[in-house]
Design a protein that fits this description.
By secondary structure, this protein is α/β, with parallel strands linked by helices. The protein is built from 16 helices and 16 strands. The strands form four sheets. Strands 6-7-5-9-10-11-14 form a seven-stranded parallel sheet, with helices on both faces. A five-stranded antiparallel sheet has the order 2-3-1-4-8.
């Protein structure tokens, strides 16, 4: 554990002095941080995650459904070969998305499993805290949702007519409070991986961290959300103490790939926000499943961590090369004192971390007890990036994970040393510049048709919490559709006319009405 004594003595004295009223709060934060951060991880007795070799090297597939089925089949095959006796005594949970299973093993069984040639590693299941302690608020920061403004998201909504409509954003956290006006109607699907009750699809948040981060992604009131038109796929992985087991987190990450349990339905989110992590810089428990996310076309966004006050490095899973690690800046684009820094080193290769930075001090968002509240942390920075990516995916749903990473980096404002560095990454995100770049790469009517086609599919997905996904998507594309050239307009209408389900006709009526209104009134 890193000690407070490593802070420069003069700096510590300055913070404590009366002339700096934040001093006592900062010192208290550091004391609590050093005493409690990730020091209380508990091993779940007799429970292990067994990672197989075969499933870890899944081939590339053109369809996500083929990827899922292949990994499911390989993992099941390994399970039967490694555990030939009746598996119900093992209480197995198949974690195919990482080529693994969670099982209960006696000591004698454990040693045999470790020696099996199909087994890559055996990891004890841990129950631990996954949220970094919240840094103190800075009194000099604005009291409005300044991060959304700083990243120019309102310009995207008003000038480019993009607000995230038609896009699903995954959200792994402490859950979400259902009754807040900023989040009402914003949840597409919810699943509780903490509770064991049958009411696991009812939104719940027992400490507010998840509701706050969800508000920054898609909050629809007070301009607190980066993508107010997007909808959320929420997995509750943390309890009232921000604790959870590696097994339940693994299972929730897997669920993001196939929320309805049917690989043929395209109901997974294209970006997942993860405002959680550990201080460990080398643990690979979640390595394979993050890789699977990327293969499926999901952008993995992770908070970099709040260890920066003591030169703490970006921890996992943010430190993985395939993850987008997000550091935090204040309203003047200075690095937040708590924001963890890089680099990250894997297999003797050095990677720049964080990848980008975003607003993370005094971020105004949802208070799960009602109203709004300000919180600081890289947990608050990450959802700015996830929300921005939702805007990119509405602008151009054909973007790949690599293309999204590239756009985020190329359009970021260089606020640190010239070029990429291990404090700010490639810079502080700029949503307006990023979305413009995504639009430049979009092709004619294709993005609109892709959004409507997926919205139609999601509207018919059973068990979701939504009621109007197609309507929301349709409303979101009207400004772009009505501005098409005559040739593009004809192409769009002709394509929609081939839809025999009724959704195409519904879209033609709404879009034609809006286009006539624009032609008559010039708006």
């Amino acid at each position: 554990m890193k000690a407070i004594k490593r802070l420069p003595a003069a700096a510590l004295r300055n913070f404590i002095m009366i002339r700096n009223p934040l001093g006592l709060g900062l010192v208290l934060f550091l004391f609590i941080f050093c005493c409690f951060t990730f020091a209380s991880a508990e091993i779940v007795p007799g429970r292990y995650i067994v990672r197989f070799k075969a499933s870890r090297e899944a081939a590339n597939f053109s369809k996500t459904s083929d990827l899922i089925r292949s990994m499911q089949a390989e993992t099941q095959s390994c399970l039967v070969k490694v555990f030939p006796k009746p598996v119900r005594t093992l209480a197995p949970r198949v974690l195919w998305a990482g080529g693994a299973v969670a099982v209960s093993l006696a000591p004698s069984e454990l040693e045999l499993v470790k020696k099996d040639p199909l087994v890559d590693s055996v990891i004890p299941v841990e129950y631990r805290t996954w949220i970094f302690p919240t840094p103190p608020l800075l009194a000099s920061e604005p009291t409005f949702a300044w991060g959304v403004v700083k990243t120019r998201a309102p310009e995207v909504w008003k000038t480019l007519n993009i607000n995230g409509s038609g896009v699903l954003v995954g959200h792994l956290d402490s859950g979400l409070v259902p009754g807040h006006p900023a989040l009402a109607g914003q949840v597409f699907r919810f699943k509780d991986f903490v509770a064991t009750t049958t009411a696991s699809s009812i939104p719940l948040d027992e400490n507010g961290h998840g509701s706050h981060t969800a508000g920054t992604i898609a909050g629809k009131t007070d301009n607190i959300g980066m993508a107010p038109g997007a909808m959320l796929v929420v997995a509750r992985i943390l309890d009232s103490n921000n604790q959870g087991s590696t097994e339940q987190i693994f299972a929730a990450m897997q669920w993001m790939l196939d929320p309805d349990g049917n690989p043929d339905t395209n109901d997974f989110p294209r970006v997942v926000n993860n405002s959680w992590g550990s201080s460990d810089t080398s643990d690979k428990t979640f390595w394979d499943i993050v890789n699977t996310w990327v293969k499926a076309g999901i952008v993995p966004v992770f908070a970099a961590g709040n260890n920066g006050y003591d030169n703490g490095k970006v921890g996992v899973p943010a430190a993985y090369p395939q993850s987008c690690a997000v550091g935090a800046v204040n309203s003047t684009d200075e690095l937040a004192f708590f924001s963890s820094t890089g680099p990250a080193i894997w297999n003797k290769i050095t990677y720049i971390k964080p990848d980008v930075t975003a607003p993370g001090t005094n971020i105004l968002s949802v208070n799960f007890k009602g109203g709004l509240t300000g919180i600081s942390g890289t947990s608050m920075a990450a959802p700015h990036v996830s929300g921005m990516i939702a805007l990119l995916l509405q602008a151009n749903p054909a973007l790949t994970v690599d293309e999204i990473f590239r756009i985020c980096r190329e359009t970021a404002v260089d606020v640190g040393e010239k070029g990429a560095d291990n404090k700010f990454g490639y810079g502080r995100i700029d949503a307006f510049a990023a979305v413009k770049k995504a639009l430049d790469a979009a092709s004619g009517t294709t993005p609109l048709l892709v959004l409507l086609s997926r919205a139609e599919e999601l509207e018919m997905t059973p068990g979701a919490a939504h009621t109007d996904f197609f309507e929301r998507t349709l409303r979101g594309i009207i400004p772009r559709a009505t501005a098409l050239t005559e040739s593009e307009w004809s192409t769009l209408i002709n394509k929609l006319a081939t839809d025999k389900t009724g959704y195409g006709k519904k879209a033609i009526q709404a879009l034609s009405c809006a286009r006539r209104f624009r032609q008559i009134h010039g708006e």
